[in-house]
Amino acid sequence: MSINLTPNSIAAINGGDLNLKPLVQVLDIKQIGTSQERYRLLISDSVSTHHAMLATQLNDRVKTGRVKKGSVVQLIDYMCSDVQNRRIVVVLNMETIVLDCDIIGNPKLGDMTAQKTVSNLNSAQPGRSVYDNRGNIQSFRPAFNAQNPGSNNMQGLQTNPLLQSQGMQGSRPMLMVPNGSNGVLRSATGKNNNNTQTYAPTVQPAYQPPPSYRNQGPIMKNEAPARVIPISALNPYQGRWAIKARVTAKGDLRRYNNAKGDGKVFSFDLLDSDGGEIRATCFNAVVDRFYDVIEVGRVYLISKGGLKPAQKNFNHLKNEWEIFLEAASTVDLCPEEDGGSIPQQQFDFKPISEIESAENNSILDIIGIVISVKPSVPILRKNGMETQRRTVGMKDSSGRSVELTLWGDFCNKEGQNLQELVDSEMFPVLAVKAGKVSDFTGKSVGTISSTQLFINPDIPEAHVLSDWFARIGQNSAAVSISRDVVPSGSKNEIRKTVSQIKEEGLGRSDKPDWVTVKATITYFKLDSFCYPACPLMIGDRQCNKKATRSGTRWVCDRCSQEFDECDYRYLLQFQIQDHTGLAWVTAFQESGEEIMGYPAKEVYQLKHEAQDEARLSDVFRSRVFYPYLFRLKIKEEMYADETKVKITVVRADKIDYSSETRHMLDTISRFRRY
Amino acid sequence: MDTSNPAILVNGNLLPTHVRKRVRTVIQVLNSDRGSVIGKSTDDQQLVIKGSPPSTPLTKFVEVIGIADSDKSIQAEIWTNFGDNFDASSFNQLCQLANGEYQHLFL
User: Fold this and answer.
1) A23-32 and A38-44: which strand pairing?
2) Which of B85, B87, B97 sits opposite A668 (nearest CB)?
């Protein structure tokens, strides 16, 4: 049975009936107004037509395609006002009942493009209602709407690659309500196949549904399938929905244990033809249902899942919601033709130069040419587990290069692949999706569990980049944003000035801070510059614990042994200064010897045995006012009741003027930018 | 420190802009003759240093301070041996900074 619009509702509305809540059809939508976005609808009750303005709060209905030309809507809340001798109807609330529909009846049309609609009616008579479970896909496809204005998108649907063909229908037999009379029929005929609509009243006002299409018994649970909507339109208040999307990432199956017991979880990311993305997560039993079904790159129709706010910590997709698949959720594989317009992957690449100003720990996508690959190194993590780390240098047309840190599996798989390509001078394009920005040394990007790497992807950006590289990039220098210091020392050097130690509160967090400071020794504390140390070996290391005198011998607490001779080890306390300030630091044996130039024992003997004050002070005086590149470990420690920030000199290097100059020139050039 | 007669830090490219002024630069000695020394500036240009070098032998890198009398030569007054290890590129960048953005810091 065809949908019947509420007859004469236009007249009734114009007459002042605001409680009618009629079913009308939208024949046309026009955007009006220059400063403010307003939409004007042409509504029909199958006999006559009238203009109605859409309240601005409903604007996004039009923009997201929930209402389009041909849609049958129920006007829930509206008002009439007289303006310039015309009755203007303003729609304050409405519900779309059918998104795509032939022109119903023969409304007296006004002055518009609706004229064309009449000509495009094809074999499907408007009167026929045939089941269609696709209903209103791609209402956001203005392209084919324009081609077939108001034609009910018949042809449009036919050419729409996303449209489900019979295959889909076949898999959803449950949704048919084969009713003898004229309920919902499936059209299997070639004449018309699945292109005409049925009504699928997906939203009903709580009260009085218009009786015209209630021709089959009491209202039961609506068995009609949900309409496919764009991912960007998903929200928890939506009611039934379905999305058709391609899986762009499939997470690992993870087991966990919490207060409620053991559980397992897995997530996958979806992308639809609109570019909308969302993550779907399954728990426990649901995991078993879908884990093997979901494959990266295939297109699925997903429906009847819950929607909850996205966990921004783990979910870096641009969507405020996440889908939670439950027992009643459905996931159906779609044939590939339907997914023709859904891209395989969606990126939002940022040029490398923008990484420099990106926030630490932010997630972004980058693409660049790989110019260097370092071998993997094993790294011991906090939890004691060892993992692999590999650094890859990338550069792009912004003239900057960045270090990409690969962790774990990426080192072996993609890392090895990249190494081989770079070694054979075929510098590949690498696209990174969901890399994390780190500001450990300059700015760099690292992989996280949800990162995906694509080597030489077949996307336009990759082609542009390899073209640029071949012509210009190969020979142009790129400024690295990833290194603070010209690698004269280890790779992880962070340079600070003395005043920054206090200013930035270094050492106050859980872990000690390691920094490099160029400073000059200005004063030595002469009182106790060394201590007697236990020389006994524990394993392959010396005990070095402070030994206490016992008679003429020494005894060590840790080793519980006595020995005649103790070792003397440096415990130097001195002041360092640079142009910003001064600080007290402590140096132990290795760095102490480096600074003093004499073994601790000698200096000790000078003081205590030879009692040669003059020479002693000479020795120290000769070491003062020397500049060094200090590697400092800064940590806050508790002493009795107070916490003090202790600075230990781990290494004291003499300045290599050449590399130090280069470092300063580099710093100057950065300074210039601000 | 005697600042009465400041010399401008130059390299090969900057010398022409300071003709007839007191300049200083570091050159790598290519050829040493009586009365003049041919040197390579830190930006790979050939300069002629006139005057009498000191009696001690010249090392590979020498700093000369004197009056620039043409855009490729300097009448040197002071010669200083800078040794054999010298970071020419850093010096070159120094010259650029000293004559560019940070000129005001130098003279």
Assistant:
1) antiparallel
2) B97
